[in-house]
C-alpha cells in the first residue's frame, strides 16, 4: 500500500537502510497489516467493540469515557486538517503537562497522519528551538500556561502556527473544536509511516531525535505490557514520567488504552502527590523512577495504598536497597526494566513472579539480547560486556552521525555494561562511560552508589571518575545528598567510606566525597552523571 504521507521529510531523513537495526518479527503478535494507524487500534477499536462507555482518561477534574476521548481527538484532528492545513507527514509539536488535552492532541496527530513531536514541559527556549529546527516543525498545539518559551523559540519562524489549549480565548483549541464534527476518517497511514519523533532526554549530551513508525507503537504495546506487566482492563494506571518521555507515553497512555484500561493523568506527580492519588483514586498500576520509590517509602505510613498491585521502574537503574525497602514496606515487587527512547520502551524486565532482586530481569519475549566484547563477540555467562539488543523496535535517528554508534551489525547498543547469569537474567553494571578505571581496577559507579544508598544518612548519590592529582590517574569520587538532619563534614566522610568498605571491596570505596544539595537530573528524573564528570575534568585542568 502506498504511504498516505504528502510531506516526505521523515522518509527523506531516515538513516540509510543498511544502518537500521535488524527488526525481528518472529512472534505472531508483531505481524501487523500494511495499512495501519495506531490511533485506530488503540482508541477507535474499543468503540467498535462496544466499550465506548468504559472509563478512559481520568484527571483530578473528572473523567472521559473512551467514546468521549475519541470525540475530543476527532474534533482536534479536524482542527489540524481544516484550520491549520496539516497534511500527512507534517510534524506537530505538542507541549503540555500530563493532562487529558495533551493525550487527546497526541491521538489527534495520529489520526491526521501527522507526526507527533512531544516536548517536556520544563524545556526552555533554546531546547525547543533546537527541536523545532531539527524536526522542521511548523505547527504546534500548546497548553496556554506553557506558551511563553515556545513563542520565544519560534520567533524566527514567521510561518510557525501555534494554537493554545486549556484556554477560554476565542481562538483557542477548545473554541475551534466546538465547531467541528465528532466523526473523523483516520488518515490511511502505512505500518512503516513515521508516527512520532521522540527526543532523547540528554543524559549523555545533546538530545538525539528518534523516529518510530505506527508499527513500532503497536509493537511496544504488544511486548512488555503483555508478557511482563500483565495488567487488567479494570486497572487504573498513574505515574510521574511526562508523556513526552517514551517511558511515560507508553506507561501512562498507550499501554492502558491498548488493553481498554483507564489512566490517571497528573500535571504534578511528586512522590507525595502520587501517593495521595493512589489513595484517593484507587490507582492499581504505577510507573515512576527509582528516586520516587525511595522517597515514597519514607511516606507510606501516611497513606492507604492498598489498591496498588503493580509497580514499574525504569529511566535509570533500580538500586537493590530501594527495591528491598519498598518490598519490605509494601509487600510489592517492583518490576524493573531497561528501555530507551531509541527502542521506544522496555525490552528487558521480568514479571513479579520471576523477579530477582537486583537484576534488571530477562529479555522481553520478542526481543533478543546478548553481552558482547569490543569486537562484537559474545562473552561467557557471568562476564561483563556491552549490552546489545534487537527486536520489533529499534533505533532510527534523524540525520545523526551517532546512528552508526548506536546500531552496529544490525544490533542496537544502548551503551550499558551488563553481565548475564546462567539463567538468562541480566545484571546491570554501569553505563559504559560510567566505568571508572582507578589504580588498575575497573570499578562500576552504580555499584558504589548502591553501597552508599544502604547507609541511613544518604538520600541520593552519584559516583564518577575524577582526576587524582597525587597519583596522576583517576579516582572514585562520590557526590552525596544527605537526609535532613544529617551533618556533612570530615567525620561523615569517614563514616560513609568505612561503610562502603564493609559492603564491597575496599578499593571501590570513594577516595573523595563531596556533599551537595541536589544532583543534576533531566526533567525525566535521570541522573546526569556526565555533568558531574565534566565538572571534575574542568577542575583537573
* Strand residues, percent: 15-25%
Q: Rough shape?
A: globular
Average pLDDT level: 93
Question: Would you identify the regions where 5 or more consecutive residues have pLDDT less than 50?
Answer: none
Fold and architecture overview:
This protein has 17 helices and 24 strands. It is an alpha/beta fold. Among the domains are: 37-188, Rossmann fold, CATH 3.40.50.980; 439-540, GMP Synthetase, Chain A, domain 3 (2-Layer Sandwich), CATH 3.30.300.30. The strands form 7 sheets. A 7-stranded mixed β-sheet has the order 2-1-10-9-11-12-13, sandwiched between helices. A 4-stranded parallel β-sheet has the order 4-3-5-6, sandwiched between helices. Helix 2 (38-48) crosses helix 4, helix 3 (66-83) packs across helix 4 (100-111) and helix 5 (125-134) crosses helix 6. The mean pLDDT is 93.
Please render the helix and strand layout as text.
Elements: H1 9-12, H2 38-48, E1 55-59, E2 62-65, H3 66-83, E3 91-95, H4 100-111, E4 115-119, H5 125-134, E5 139-143, H6 147-153, E6 161-165, H7 173-177, E7 194-199, E8 209-213, H8 214-222, H9 224-229, E9 236-239, H10 246-259, E10 262-264, H11 271-281, E11 285-288, H12 290-297, E12 310-313, H13 320-330, E13 334-336, E14 368-372, E15 385-390, H14 403-406, E16 407-408, E17 411-412, E18 416-420, E19 426-431, E20 435-438, E21 441-444, H15 445-453, E22 458-468, E23 473-482, H16 490-503, E24 512-515, H17 529-540
Parallel strand pairs: 1-10, 3-4, 3-5, 5-6, 9-10, 9-11, 11-12, 12-13, 23-24
Antiparallel strand pairs: 1-2, 7-8, 14-15, 15-18, 16-17, 18-19, 20-21, 22-23
Helix pairs in contact: 2-3, 2-4, 3-4, 5-6, 12-13
